[in-house]
Amino acid sequence: MESIPVPASPKIPTSQQEAQDTLTAYLQKTVDALPKGTSLDGTRYIVGDGTAYCEDNPSGPDAPVHVEDWRDMNLPPGTDFNAIISQTGDIWKQWGWKVIERDGFTKPNRFGYGPDGYILQIEARPDPKFPPSLVGSSPCFSGNLKSNRVTKPSLIQQAPQQ
Question: Which of 19, 88, 126, 152 has its CA 20 to 30 A from that of 137?
Answer without folding.
Answer: 126
